[in-house]
Design a protein that fits this description.
The complex is a heterodimer of chains A (about 100) and B (about 475). Chain A has about 100 residues and is mainly alpha-helical. In chain A, helix 1 links the parallel strand 1 and strand 2. In chain A, helix 1 packs across helix 3 and helix 2 packs across helix 3. Chain B is built from 19 helices and ten strands. The radius of gyration of chain B is 26 Å and the shape is elongated. Classes of the chains: A mainly alpha (about 100), B alpha/beta (about 475).
Chain lengths: ~100, ~475
């Protein structure tokens, strides 16, 4: 499915995290996500739009389909970004928070 | 006598409005009139008017001993005419004192020097004519957009009859050499080069109000002391900066105006420096060496190269697509198309697409009206798409090579039929029907791009009218 896709859109009204855009990026598919999703806080190489903003979403989809520069950039860096998202790193951050609290 | 050369850059781009996909083919107004007017008024009140007054006072006070130079981009001059005639008047007053030199540049503050010699020369001529009209001077010295310079650009500038050019004293080019001398172009040594002393310039332009800076607060006494500490053999200190430094980047509250008010007096009384304009510097001093600059340099960021404007996929695509229109533009006489062609070339549009802000760049964010470089890119490309449609309308042809990525109507219909057939087939196949219903609704169906085969530039007359094209595009994304 991803291999056939040029764009992946997740226009969720609300999404606690949203793991599926990560899968898409992993498969080198550029993603558009709503600003109201948790994953929007994590990702840099993704287009973020408000879920109600139809015009911005149209812009984003059309842009990814027709302006090669954008999809090229996303394909190049998206995969890299996703593979660097690891539980190890998240756990490390949590440990650091605990340790900083213990020190103070 | 040693020399201090002040040069100020005045530039305001025509900012683009939020231009939506749905506007392509229907709305040809690209500019954010409100933002352009209000920003121009704000900067005029905070910077241009008070600083011009200050400079005029200083010139009146010190007579011919205090001299400065400006380069005002053509798009800024046009905006002065539209929104701030009072600013234009005050510049004219400065010009009348005879202590102010106006320097040549490209009309659109564009990067054309990197792409098209012809376009570059046209824009420089246009700018020269404008400076002549407003200020009664014909520029003898040139500065390229953002001080971009290379040996080849220098050669073109020399061919156009300029005697000197300003550029950055970039460390990676100069190495151990000092920027405080005159240099010459490597291909045509007749063209003299004035190099920006970036340390002394940025002390004023960037660091002046920075309280974390070890030298804060910067006073005229301290600055004059630094000047006196420079090796006595060094001849020219070039202080180049944005004019908006005064009152806009450094607010009036930081004391920047007082600093400038007292600087000339302190320099003239307690150092052996004099103030000269760039052409006087070029006449008075002799170049010490030629400077070799194989790859273009600029005055931006730590790298002093072009990466703020060009280099990432977004910027390169937009830039290449824009200049691929050049041969078409040459056949056009329509005034509004030619005007937009100039405004769209302004380097700021490419600056907004810079992705370096991920790592570096409060400065980038400060100037950027867009949230992300992606937005800037999509917005610009939407406008460019409409611009291309207008060009095609005017020339009554469709240029296939510009549409390689977009899908033509017939192709789209074929695709739709194909996919519909596929869906039907999947629906009827029992093993797949379950999968289809559980498929998340949020996913868009895939639309495979198929490039039309015609890659040649042979224009096919009236193959698809402009409006029909944009409708097909809409359909594609909706289906």
């Amino acid at each position: 499915m991803f291999a056939q896709s040029d764009v992946y859109v997740m226009p969720s009204v609300s999404e606690p995290f949203g793991i599926s855009p990560l899968e898409a990026m992993r498969a080198s598919v550029p993603v558009i996500i709503s600003k109201q999703s948790g994953v929007a806080e994590v990702l840099k190489h993704a287009l973020k739009v408000d879920f109600w903003d139809v015009e911005a979403m149209a812009d984003a989809i059309y842009g990814l389909l027709c302006y090669d520069g954008l999809s090229k950039l996303f394909r190049r860096y998206g995969q890299e970004e996703v593979t660097s998202l690891k539980w190890d790193e998240a756990a490390q951050k949590v440990i650091e928070v605990y340790q900083s609290l213990l020190k103070s | 006598m040693r020399t201090i050369c002040f040069y100020f850059q005045v530039h305001q781009p025509f900012r683009l409005r939020r231009y939506r996909f749905f506007d392509i083919g229907t709305d040809h107004n690209y500019y954010d009139e409100f933002a352009n007017r209000s920003i121009m008024r704000k900067v005029a009140e905070k910077c241009y008017l008070p600083t011009n007054k200050l400079m005029l006072d200083l010139i009146n006070e010190y007579g011919k001993r205090f001299k400065i130079s400006y380069s005002i981009s053509g798009v800024a001059l046009t905006q002065f005419q539209l929104y701030a005639p009072d600013v234009l008047e005050s510049f004219k007053k400065l010009a009348a004192t005879g202590c102010v030199e106006f320097i040549g540049e490209t009309y659109s503050h564009s990067l054309s020097a990197l792409k098209s010699r012809e376009e570059f020369e046209q824009q420089v001529k246009l700018q020269n004519a404008m400076v002549k009209e407003f200020f009664g001077q014909t520029p003898k010295v040139f500065r390229n957009t953002e001080l971009i310079y290379s040996d080849l650009i220098g050669e073109v500038v020399a061919d156009m009859g300029f005697k000197a050019m300003l550029t950055e004293g970039a460390k990676h080019v100069l190495g151990w050499k000092s920027s405080n001398y005159l240099y010459a172009n490597a291909i045509n040594p007749k063209l003299k080069l004035l190099l920006k002393n970036f340390r002394m310039s940025d002390d004023i332009a960037f660091r002046f109000s920075n309280r974390d800076w070890s030298e804060w607060p910067l006073t005229t006494d301290k600055y004059v002391q630094w000047l006196n500490h420079l090796s006595p053999k060094e001849e020219v200190i070039n202080l180049f900066m944005d004019y908006e430094t005064f009152g806009e980047h450094q607010w009036a509250e930081t004391g920047i105006f007082e600093f400038m008010r007292h600087l000339p007096g302190a320099v003239l009384s307690s150092t052996n420096f004099e103030f000269l304009t760039p052409s006087e510097v070029a006449d008075k001093h002799q170049p010490v060496a030629v400077m070799h600059v194989q790859y273009p340099i600029s005055w931006a960021d730590e790298e002093r190269d072009l990466t703020a404007w060009l280099g990432n996929d977004l910027q390169d695509e937009a830039f290449d697509k824009l200049y691929s229109l050049k041969p078409l533009i040459d056949q056009i006489q329509d005034e509004s198309i030619l005007r937009d062609w100039k405004y769209l070339q302004t380097s700021d549009h490419f600056y907004y697409m810079c992705t370096k802000w991920f790592s570096d760049g409060d400065v980038h964010k400060y100037f950027n009206p867009y949230d992300t470089p992606y937005e800037a890119f999509i917005n610009y490309m939407n406008i460019l798409s409409d611009f291309i449609l207008r060009i095609e309308d005017y020339l009554k042809t469709r240029i296939e090579s510009l549409h390689i990525d977009t899908i033509t109507q017939t192709d789209a219909m074929k695709l739709i039929a194909e996919y519909q057939e596929k869906i039907e087939r999947l629906k009827t196949a029992p093993s797949f029907s379950k999968k289809m219903t559980t498929e998340p609704t949020t996913k868009t169906p895939s639309v495979k791009k198929t490039a039309p085969k015609a890659k040649t530039k042979i224009p096919a007359k009236g193959k698809t009218p402009a409006k029909a094209v944009s409708k097909t595009k809409k359909k594609d994304t909706k289906e």
